[in-house]
């Protein structure tokens, strides 16, 4: 698997809507091999009790997520809200941008170093081919000090890996950028 170059990423953004909702800076002045994504929404967990069952003889396991409440959402063209993340706090955050992942690419999101230099840990994973929606990450403050993070700040860099061979498109419950869910059967 190889990483596609920035000019190919920009071409696919412009011609194929690979990523929508980008800030102008990311297309006019990209660097490296990836595109920066911004903090678009912040969700707080309001109720726990999550569980994930193993698949058993009866079929696919059940799962239940936490309950969340949206605290902030990016307001394009306005002064943005700021989130103060106290030591030990944990949030689910979403990108402002939406990815439209074709079957020949697999995006990986990497935290920007400005986050960990401030004591913030962004928990990210790969994105499957066929996924469309905002990306959701975990965000926690590992430092001993509060950190202020403004909506619209660049939080991660997305890099696209070229898939050699076949891929099966994403068909999970988080398609479209869903943050939390009640009880359901895994797919």
Through-space gap between termini: 26 Å
Q: Into how many domains do the coordinates divide? A: 1
Mean pLDDT equals 92
Gyration radius from CA atoms, angstroms: 17 Å
Structural class: mainly beta
CATH topology: Deoxyuridine 5'-Triphosphate Nucleotidohydrolase, Chain A
Q: How many strand elements?
A: 16
Percentage of residues assigned to helices: 10-25%
Strand content: 35-45%
Name the overall outline: globular
- One letter per element, helices H and strands E, the order comes to EHEHEEEEEEEEHEEEEEE
The CATH architecture designation is: Distorted Sandwich
Structure in words:
With 187 residues, the chain is mainly β. The protein has a single domain (2-185), classed as Distorted Sandwich (Deoxyuridine 5'-Triphosphate Nucleotidohydrolase, Chain A), CATH 2.70.40. The strands form 4 sheets. Strands 1, 3, 6, 8, 10, 11, 13 and 15 form an 8-stranded antiparallel β-sheet that branches. It has a 3-stranded antiparallel β-sheet with strand order 2-9-12, covered by helices on one side. The relative contact order is 0.26. The protein has helices at 6-16, 24-28, 113-117, and strands at residues 2-3, 19-20, 35-47, 51-52, 62-64, 67-73, 82-85, 90-95, 98-100, 105-111, 120-123, 132-133, 136-141, 147-150, 154-162, 184-185. The model has no long low-confidence stretch (mean pLDDT 92).
Question: What is the compact description of this entry?
Answer:
With 187 residues, the protein is mainly β. 11% of the residues lie in helices and 41% in strands.
């Amino acid at each position: 698997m190889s990483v596609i170059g920035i000019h190919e990423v920009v071409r696919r953004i412009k011609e194929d809507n690979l990523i929508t909702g980008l800030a102008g800076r990311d297309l006019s002045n990209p660097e490296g091999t990836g595109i920066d994504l911004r903090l678009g929404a912040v969700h707080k967990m309001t109720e726990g009790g999550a569980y994930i069952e193993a698949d058993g003889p009866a079929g696919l396991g059940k799962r239940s997520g936490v309950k969340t409440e949206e605290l902030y959402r990016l307001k394009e063209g306005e002064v943005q809200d700021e989130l103060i993340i106290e030591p030990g706090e944990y949030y689910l955050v979403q990108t402002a941008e939406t990815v439209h992942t074709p079957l020949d690419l697999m995006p990986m999101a990497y935290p920007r170093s400005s986050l960990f230099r401030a004591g913030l840990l962004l928990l990210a994973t790969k994105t499957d081919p066929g996924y469309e929606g905002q990306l959701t990450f975990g965000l926690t403050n590992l430092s001993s000090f509060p950190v202020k993070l403004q909506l619209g700040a660049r939080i991660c860099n997305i890099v696209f890996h070229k898939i050699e061979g076949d891929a099966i498109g994403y068909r999970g419950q988080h398609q479209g950028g869903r943050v939390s869910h009640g009880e359901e059967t895994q797919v």
